[in-house]
UniProtKB/TrEMBL annotation:
Species: Desulfosalsimonas propionicica
All copies of domain PilZ, residue ranges: 12-116
Keyword Magnesium: no
Source taxonomy: Bacteria, Pseudomonadati, Thermodesulfobacteriota, Desulfobacteria, Desulfobacterales
Name the record gives this protein: C-di-GMP-binding flagellar brake protein YcgR
Residue ranges crossing the lipid bilayer per the database entry: none
Amino acid sequence: MDSQQNAKTIVDRRKSPRIQTENDVSYILFDANREVTDQGRAKALDLSQNGILLETEKPLNGSCIMLITLDLNGKKVKVKGRVANTRKSDKPGCHLTGIEFKSSEEQQIKAIVAFVKVYHNRRQRHQNKNLYSVQQPVS
C-alpha cells in the first residue's frame, strides 16, 4: 500500500470530503506549554474543512502546530491546528501526520482557499506548459 492508499484509508473515516492536493507548507510545532519544539517543511497531500494530511521526513510530535503557506499573491496564510495522529508512511523515509484545524472558521477558510487555488494554478500552468511545448522539427 502506498502513501496515497494509506491516506485514502483515512479519507473513508472522515466526516467531510477530502480534496487531493500537493502543496508545500511550512510548519512550527509547539508543545503543551506553547514552546517551539520543531519547525520545517511538509507536503500537504489532502485537506478538508476540518483538517489536512501532511507528509514529512520525520514524525511530528507535539500538541499544537502552525501551518504557513503562500496564496497566489505571495501573502502568508496561517492556520492553527492540533496534531491528531502521526504514523510512518509506506513511502520510505516519510511520515504522515493528520492535523485538525483549530483556528477561527474565517482563518480555516482562507487557508483552504489558498491551498486549493495555489494547487490548481500550479497544475494548470503545468498542463499548459505541456500543451504548448511544441517540439521544433530537426533540419
